[in-house]
Amino acid sequence: MNVQILKLLAKDARMSISDIATVTGLGEAEVSAEINEMKKDGLIRGFRTVIDWEKLDEFYVSALVEIKVTPKPGLGFEDIAKKIAKFHEVESVYLLSGDSDLCVIVKCKTFQDVSRFVAKELAVMESVTSTKTQFVMRRYKELDVDLEVTDPDDRGIVSSC
Amino acid sequence: MLNYESILNDTITEIQPSGIRKFFDIAATMSDVISLGVGEPDFETPWKIRSAAIKSLERGKTRYSSNRGLAELRKEIANYLRRKYSLSYEPESEILVTVGGSEAIDAALRSIVNPGDEVIIPQPSYVCYVPMVQMAGGVPVIIENKAEDDFKLTAAELKENITPKTKAIILPYPSNPTGAIMERADYEAIEKLIKDTDIILLSDEIYAELTFNGKKHVSPAAVGSLRERTIVINGFSKAFSMTGWRLGYTCGPKEILTQITKLHQYSIMCAPTTSQYAAVTALRDCDEEVAAMMEEYDTRRKLMVKGFNSIGLECREPEGAFYAFPSIKSTGMMSGEFCERLLEKEKVAVVPGTAFGESGEGFIRASYCYSTDHIREAIERIGRFLKEI
Predict the structure, then answer these.
(1) Residues B62 and B146 in one domain
(2) Are residues B183 and B61 in the same domain?
(3) N or C: lower Cβ tally within 10 Å for chain B?
(4) Would you tell me which residues 196-225 of chain B have a C-beta closer than 8 angstroms to some C-beta of chain A?
(5) What is the number of structural domains in chain B?
(6) Is B8 exposed, middle or buried, given 0-12, 13-18 or 19+ CB atoms closer than 10 A?
């Protein structure tokens, strides 16, 4: 495991092996081996792009669904959480402290699709006692990226200070 | 019409405008330029700091502070300097909050220089030292730092330039534009050399937070007996991305600080109060924000140095500030010509080394206050330019 490589990739998943080698001081072969190892160990799970979908006419609708469940004897929340995670419409599943038990982020094409999915799939699951669906109305920041910032560089071209 | 030539101040009118003004003017008018030319962080001031300023305004904290600066801020500066650089200064009498590091340099020089006093200035270095010494009535004595010495100031060179008239030595490290730093042993050698003199050290440590390769910044004031003769200059611009807030500070022995404070009191009154409240938060709560910025600078630094070397411009590894200072001697061009042609052909702006003194000839300054994508693109273009010429 190499935390420095992870930190670099977390910031820029497209950073080249050669650049990672330059920054870490490792050889390129070594960097490749480390990354492969971390993939194999399940430490690196994927490389995604941060997209501002709202810039498109047709973008996804997301909802944050809080779910209360009756935990199963012996299995706790594990069983239901894993089942929910299997749905294509589900982007993330978290176990929460506080009032709700699970937080599920659902992503669909339309509001109706989300409603239908929550009503027909999530709410009716065995051991789910209640759901609270909150639609995402606007995204301001996603995966550390401030989606609001569009200011151009106003520093000028050259300076001596 | 008035004969302005005869009425204006001789010292000021004789100061030469910067020689590369022409190049800067051309660059400023061009569009689509990829620039590595700016010595100013691209990061915005961390939000916590901005928020503290806003809150201070909401609370109506809009009046003058004491001449020396908010007591609360001076206390934080003392803590910060102790924690970071093992420096010990009394907030009541040995710390003054100024309008940027620039005011501090100016006021410090005017407080110590008598007409005809010599002030040693290592170059290549930031452009303000020579004119400020001249405005204080002093005589600048230039020492040319050399690439083979990693652009450090050596005791040997210093020895050759010290005369009975030497009043002070300016220590601009970590260096803009070379990225050079001074280490403990470098200052110990200087201490040995000047220990029986009255020479003052003016240490401009504005880039102190920006050191790399695990090397922590060393202030001369923390080396041996040098504290009694050192005036430390520092500020918030570079470390906390606070250039526009215009806030710096100076520390030194009470006897010197009393004089600098007098000057500041009459010419400035006090540094901007809003900036001072912001700065309290910067010193108290922003270690993580600063660390994240430093990590990013380090990544860029390594990519830039590798990039220059890979396209055939020899570039030593800078260990401080946020500039690379590659040699362009292999092209046979002078720095000014190189920069003008590069700007014209590939629309990349870098600053000629000669902007920072004649000893900068044969070098260019490239800032890495830019995103890695931006740096990659610029280096690619410079590589293409080298093949075309």
Answers:
(1) yes
(2) yes
(3) N
(4) none
(5) 2
(6) exposed
What pLDDT, on the 0 to 100 scale, is given for residue A56? 85
| pLDDT of A57 over the 80 cut | no
Residues B260 and B348 in one domain: no
Same domain, B326 and B307: yes
B153 located within any domain = yes
Q: Is the pLDDT of residue B199 over 90?
A: yes
What backbone torsions phi and psi does residue B340 show, to the nearest 5 degrees?
Answer: -65, -45
Print burial letters for B265-275: b (CB count within 10 Å at least 16), e (below 16).
eeeeebbbbbb
pLDDT over 70 (residue A87):
yes
For residue A2, the distance in angstroms to the closest alpha carbon of chain B comes to: 16
Angle between helices B335-346 and B372-388 (to 10 degrees): 100
**Using H for helix, E for strand and C for coil, what is the string for B212-244?**
CCCCCCCCHHHCCCHHHHEEEEEECCCCCCCHH
Q: Which residues of A touch B30 (CB under 8 A)?
A: 157
Is the complex ipTM higher than 0.90? Answer: no
Question: Which residue has 């030319």 as its token pair?
Answer: B37
Last residue of a domain, one of B255, B285, B315: B285
pTM of the predicted protein model:
0.92
Crossing angle between the packed helical segments B372-388 and B287-310, to the nearest 10 degrees? 20
Cα of B65 to nearest chain A Cα, Å: 28
Q: Which of B285, B301, B322 is the last residue of a domain?
A: B285
